[in-house]
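Following up on my earlier message about cytidine-5'-monophosphate. Here are the inputs again, as you asked, copied directly from the submission form:
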Amino acid sequence: MHAVGIVAAAGSGSRLGAELPKALVPLAGRPLVGWAVEALQAGGVDEVVVVVPPAERAAFAEALPPAVVLVDGGPSRTASVRAGLAAAGSAAGVVLVHDAARPLTPPAVVERVLTALADGAAAVVPVLPVVDTTVVVDGDGVVTGTLPRATLRRVQTPQGFDRATLVAAYARLADDADLTDDAAVVRAAGVSVATVEGDDRSAKVTVRHDLDLAELQVRR
Ligand code: C5P
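Thanks, got it. Here's what our run produced:
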């Protein structure tokens, strides 16, 4: 089972307040994207494609090992993953789509995703339980309902797919579609999505506090 990892790294990271694209922001002296690539490789992925902001390609090339394939991203995460998938090539039996913004994903999470695919899942996502009470609000911020927490899950990456299934699902999607993850893309095509256990250490770096927590994690 030849596995290709696609790392979405073409976002600006404006919520982090950094001058650099988020994926190039250093964590313990190395860019987030380098950590994300290494996590995929340590978990058993054979090849990695990184989707980058077109204007920053040279900086990414310098930050990553030469074997990593770089592809120009698009205006949305969906457009960026679409570009990465086109570059993944048909040799890949399965693809794992990962966020550069999740630098500290333990290899065991990657292994669980690969195992579920090897066992026959067409799509699989790592998930965690929701520990807070979760509500719905209206436009004024007034609570209009409480969601049943026991059936809710937080979805992480890497998300794993049979390559042909993901390619077919993206082909059905409108050109300007903008979905927050790839499980939503295959679900829109009627594909069932399995789950495996995620990991709190695989948290997404979005704001400065997330980066501070990640720094503490690597120092331990
Ligand atoms: O914005 P958010 O943190 O949800 O982005 C998730 C991932 O998608 C990030 O790693 C980001 O670099 C990537 N992304 C992308 N292309 C875009 C927007 C986001 O590859 N146009």
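One observation from looking it over: Helices lie at 32-42, 57-63, 77-88, 107-118, 163-172, 182-188, 208-219. Hope that helps, and feel free to reply on this thread.
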